[in-house]
Amino acid sequence: MGAFAAGSTAKARQAPENVPKTARFPVAGGMSQEFPMILSMTGFAAVAAELPGVSLAVELRSVNHRYLDLTLKLPDELRAAEPALRESLAGELKRGKVECRIALNRVAHGTNSLAVDAGRIGQLAAAASEVTRTVPDALPLSVHEILRWPGVLAEPTVPPAELSQRALGLVRQALSDLAAARAREGAKTADVLEACCAGIEVQVARVLPRVPAIHLAYNEKLAARLREAGLDPNEDRLKQELALFATKVDVAEELARLAAHVAEVRRVLRAGGSAGKRLDFLAQELHREANTLGSKSVDAEVSQAALELKVLIEQMREQVQNVE
Hints:
Layout: H1 2-6, E1 22-26, E2 32-36, E3 43-51, E4 54-63, E5 68-73, H2 82-92, E6 96-106, H3 118-134, H4 143-148, H5 160-207, H6 211-228, H7 236-247, H8 252-271, H9 276-296, H10 300-320
Parallel strand pairs: 5-6
Antiparallel strand pairs: 1-2, 3-4, 4-6
Helix pairs in contact: 2-5, 5-8, 5-10, 8-9, 9-10
């Protein structure tokens, strides 16, 4: 292995040391604090190395997917290493459609590395002499023909086991670069989600103070209609009916749930790691509450706030689809 390492000129980049591991989120008191980072499922990485007689190139591409879907495209020389490569990839990636492509190309050797196989030439000379004895008029082999004979020129090669080990090492380097790309993308996604959470809180704060006034105005409106119909709204039975009907348009519970879901989204973002499925569920719950808020609304401003909430939550859902 030492001779192999000494004889190769590596082009592979070193694993990045500045991979972001945390993101900054707001906490109580208007301050912010570092928390573990969520990861995007989108990323790309490529590394390469030159080995004796061959060059290796590894590319990793990752896009969003419900589960981990690995696709390996390998040259025939590395088919035996596929289980180890899959294990290495699965050990680092949790979700995403990931394509690993490894290219193996022969490198033309320079004049300084030319070497001939004397034993092979001896075998060729013996065979040529046998042909000459049998066919005296046969033309002798030229130097050009001898050099082109298979096996005469000794080309540098890498043993299969060492080739597999080097390919595995390059895949690990590519995984490190891919993790850096996914972390950077995850940090941007976290910023967008935090902005959506802040926007949802603005809309909740816009509606919440109006709830008592909305209830009062709605009760007065119903009472006026009852009086127009010749009924007494102060009658006990009608009072009960009014109270029951008013609860059907009460949005305080939806506002409380929206606030609770936003708090949970922030908690999940701070926990970091593989949070995509949790965030997707929370986005669905937020959308459900916004729909209910809109359907219960008897006030133009509440209806406008519900519409704004749906826009923000839809933006959140689009981002969440790409979170591991």
